[in-house]
Amino acid sequence: MESKPIYEYIGQPALLEQLGEEACELGQASLKMARYIRSENPTPKTAFDVTKDLVEEVSDVLVCIEELKAAGFINDKTINAMKEIKRTRWYERLGGNENV
Ligand SMILES: [Mg+2]
Questions:
Q1: What is the whole-number distance in angstroms between the Cα of residue 60 and the centre of ligand 1?
Q2: Alpha-carbon distance 1 to 44, whole Å?
């Protein structure tokens, strides 16, 4: 593990830009995997390719998130609270109960 957080090397705006870039790449990887699974619009990518790409982009985003925490932009307490709200709302929209 490096001795100081990434933002101290590149600055906070560049860290946020990196997150934006990686989040877009994650979106593309996720959509490509859905396209592969659905198969209605075939892609030359293999199951290995789409899985590898998704894992790579999830990892990129998670690294950025960890660095945002290190930079003090966000923290686990507020993220966990928001996650609970979002998950509950999602279950409600589905007409279900997450505790069932
Ligand atoms: Mg990436």
A1: 5
A2: 37
CA of 15 to the centre of ligand 1 (A): 13
pLDDT score for 96: 77
CA 10: distance to chain centroid?
21
CA of 17 to the centre of ligand 1 (A): 12
Break the chain into its structural domains and give their ranges: 6-74
pTM of this prediction?
0.89
Q: Report CA(99)–ligand 1 centroid distance (Å).
A: 35
Structure-model confidence comparison of residues 31 and 71, the more confident one: 31
